[in-house]
Backbone:
């Protein structure tokens, strides 16, 4: 059982539930989210439910593989996700991932969610560092990882959705 529930001023970071399928399918199809996270698009509620069941079954605090819902506290609505997981594109280093529905972007929710998850991960797992990979032209996401304290190490090429793409590669070490 996944027993994580982190509250911030605006958000609740918690496990996904089947009740989130409609919201997850919706935010994953938003123009900005689907453009930057093309491999995460869920075309309908069936795909969203399959994804939710998959990430919840894959949950592992040791590896770690942690993917959680970002719930807008006031609206009681799932507006995105935040998580850490091994990323094949960078030799299975553990990466921070996040996405926030287009309608909620620009309000600091991605930073707020990632910040509390990073703190939780460094306190509750054996991880000593996290990676982040962001396309250079994704200015908002590059700004988020920098606000979180990640340092840009290098620009790497990696295969993404069948094409070779440039990514800024960042690292954050536990303090």
Residues:
């Amino acid at each position: 059982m996944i027993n994580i529930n982190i509250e911030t001023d605006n958000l609740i970071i918690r496990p996904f539930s089947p009740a989130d399928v409609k919201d997850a399918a919706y935010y994953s199809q938003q123009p900005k989210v689907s453009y930057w996270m093309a491999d995460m698009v869920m075309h309908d509620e069936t795909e969203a439910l399959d994804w939710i069941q998959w990430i919840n079954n894959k949950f592992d605090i040791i590896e770690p593989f942690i993917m959680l819902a970002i719930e807008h506290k006031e609206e009681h609505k799932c507006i995105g996700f935040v998580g850490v997981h091994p990323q094949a594109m960078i030799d299975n280093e553990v990466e921070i991932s996040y996405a926030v529905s287009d309608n909620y972007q620009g309000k600091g929710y991605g930073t707020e969610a990632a910040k509390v998850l990073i703190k939780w991960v460094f306190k509750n797992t054996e991880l000593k560092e996290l990676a982040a990979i962001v396309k250079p032209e994704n200015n908002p996401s590059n700004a988020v990882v920098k606000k979180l304290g990640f340092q840009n190490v290098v620009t790497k090429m990696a295969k993404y959705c069948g094409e070779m793409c440039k990514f800024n590669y960042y690292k954050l070490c536990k303090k």
About this structure: Helices lie at 21-28, 31-36, 45-58, 109-124, 139-147. Residues 6-126 form a domain with the Aminopeptidase fold (CATH 3.40.630.30).
